[in-house]
Design a protein that fits this description.
Strand content: 25-35%
Structural class: alpha/beta
Distance between the termini: 17 Å
Low-confidence stretches: none
Strand order of the largest sheet: 22-23-24-25-26-27-28-29-30-31-32
Number of strands: 38
Number of helices: 12
Helix content: 10-25%
Shape: globular
Largest sheet: 11 strands, mixed
């Protein structure tokens, strides 16, 4: 990781949180490059009014990933799984009908009224255009998955692709027979793993690659039959970083009685403490050049980016793949994108500015949920369209003449080049992904002018409800009837159920049944990762100042890249 020094052009105060933030010469150059041009005139993007964190918070407020509801399809009358609860006022179509030729989103188009507030007009359009119930394509027996594709027999998986028999996982691809994991790829028979890849039968592990038959690993590579180990490469039969014989290892593992829930919790807590003795990398990543951030792979010239792969000349990118020349982006995956600004995207975006969840689009501004389209301005839920404004079709000449007039109106009203106001989100703050990274209580949500969702889905009928504390310790004592029970989460008291595939997995691997709701388990995994934020901190080896996602207050021993490599390799 390199400490990149940019020349500061100006310092501003965030209009929301009042924190000072810098605008650099590089920022100004980027804004100039992505500013649109019509009839030879450039409509320059001004510097943002909010700091990078508040801008990300505003974008993520529009993105619901994990909250799914049952409601009725407004086209067929059939029951469907949807991102929108049944009390929300929108028309929602099932995927087959939405993608069909039986309706046209242009039927809801309207003229721009120069006498009215711009955002108010777009908000009105949002209320009437039918919405796609869920983003889930080319999948089999995987109705309860979102922002996903090409999955088979998956349940409650989000941002997952090409998976089979995967449940309660978030972000990843090409996994099989795995449960309760976050950011995993090419894994099989894995459980409670975070940021792991190419592993087999790996449990309760983090930041590890190509490992198998192992438990509680942290930052290990090519390790087999290891337990509670940190920073090991190409090892076998190690227990707490100590080399054992095969028989010693097996006897030790058996003595732990990991089939009992209390022993699993004990080992979880012990592993968290034992990791503090070992050095941690200031940044996770490989094959990078001139970058600052965390979890960066094959990236160059990227500043304050997190969870990025094959990105170049980017800044403030969070979970982005193959993006060149972009700033302020979230969730752009699996295909090349270029010249993007203030986007929550999907894939294949070019010259997209202030967009929310658009897919395979170019030259699109101020639009949301549009697919395979180009040259759109203030449109929503369009597919395979061009030269549209407010979902109304124009000729090329009409489009290029009208857009500058609207821009001038927006500039007069002070609405030019700001992302959608938080109040325009179709989701409550508490059901959007923003609440995972910027958690707020209900009163704070309302005070800050975000939406709040009060809807609570009815819980399915069960034979009985049992507090988590009353569950048997050992999986052997869990009856088949648990599939008809509701378990009261030990943290939130929210009821949850065990699904048959889940119970089969626990029994196969002799694992105890969890005591926490799936949503709480997801938050527990999120809490084990560092925040999407950089801090200045001294290397605990050479004492040089570095930028890292470990705050100075955190107890971990953190080394700069050079010191870490010397220590471990």
């Amino acid at each position: 990781m390199t400490k990149i020094i940019e020349k500061i052009a100006k310092t501003k105060s965030c209009q929301k949180c009042q924190i000072s933030f810098d605008i650099t010469d590089r920022d100004l150059e980027f804004y100039d490059k992505v500013s649109p041009v019509f009839a030879g005139e450039k409509y320059s993007i001004p510097t943002p009014k909010l700091c990078p964190e508040c801008r990300q918070q505003r974008r993520l407020n529009f993105r619901n990933e994990r909250n799914l509801y049952k409601r009725t399809c407004d086209s067929t009358g059939k029951d469907i799984v949807s991102l929108y609860d049944p009390e929300k006022p929108y028309k929602v179509y099932n995927a087959d009908f939405w993608w069909s030729s039986d309706w046209d989103s242009l039927d809801y188009g309207r003229d721009f009224d120069f006498s009215q507030n711009f955002f108010d007009q777009f908000y009105d359009l949002q209320q009437v255009v039918p919405r796609l119930s869920i983003i889930n394509s080319q999948s089999e027996n995987s109705a309860y998955t979102n922002f996903s594709s090409s999955n088979k027999n998956c349940y409650y998986t989000f941002g997952m692709f090409f998976d089979e028999d995967v449940h309660y996982c978030h972000y990843g691809s090409e996994c099989k027979d795995s449960l309760d994991s976050l950011r995993v790829s090419s894994c099989e028979l894995c459980y409670e793993c975070i940021d792991c890849e190419k592993s087999y039968k790996l449990f309760f592990s983090q930041d590890s690659q190509s490992c198998s038959n192992s438990w509680f690993l942290k930052n290990c590579i090519d390790c087999n039959d290891c337990f509670d180990c940190v920073n090991l490469n190409n090892k076998q039969y190690c227990f707490k970083n100590k080399q054992l014989s095969k028989q010693e290892y097996q006897d030790t593992l058996q003595s732990l009685r990991l089939e009992e829930y209390s022993n699993i919790i004990k080992m979880k807590n012990e592993s968290i403490v034992s990791r503090l003795k070992f050095p941690h990398r200031s940044m996770v990543g490989t094959q990078n050049e001139n970058v600052i951030g965390d979890f960066l792979y094959d990236c160059s010239n990227c500043i304050e980016c997190f969870s990025a792969w094959k990105c170049e000349d980017c800044k403030y990118g969070y979970q982005v793949d193959e993006v060149t020349m972009g700033q302020d982006m979230n969730c752009m995956w699996y295909d090349k994108s270029e010249f993007c600004y203030e986007c929550t995207g999907w894939t294949g975006l070019f010259d997209t500015i202030f967009t929310e969840c658009v897919w395979m689009c170019s030259n699109v501004m101020y639009s949301g949920q549009c697919f395979n389209s180009k040259d759109l301005f203030w449109c929503i839920w369009l597919n395979n369209k061009q030269y549209c404004i407010f979902n109304k079709q124009y000729t090329k000449q009409e489009y290029e003449a009208l857009v500058p007039r609207i821009i001038e109106k927006m500039k007069q009203d002070g609405q030019w080049w700001e992302f959608f106001p938080a109040s325009m989100s179709p989701f409550g703050y508490n059901e959007a992904v923003v609440n995972e990274y910027f958690p707020l209580k209900k009163a704070e949500i309302i005070e800050q002018w975000f939406n709040y969702c009060d809807y609570e889905a009815p819980f399915s009928k069960v034979d009985k409800t049992i507090p988590a504390t009353k569950l048997p310790e050992n999986i052997e004592n869990i009856p088949d009837d648990i599939l008809n029970w509701a378990i009261e989460c030990e943290i939130t008291k929210k009821p949850f159920r065990i699904i048959p595939q889940e119970l089969k997995f626990y029994r196969r691997h002799n694992l105890p049944v969890p005591r926490r709701h799936p949503d709480q388990r997801h938050l527990d995994r999120i809490a084990l990762r560092n925040p999407r934020k950089l801090f200045e901190r001294d290397c605990d080896k050479c004492w040089d100042t570095m930028q890292t996602s470990y705050s100075p207050e955190k107890p971990e021993k953190v080394y700069c890249e050079g010191c870490y490599n010397k220590e471990i390799y």
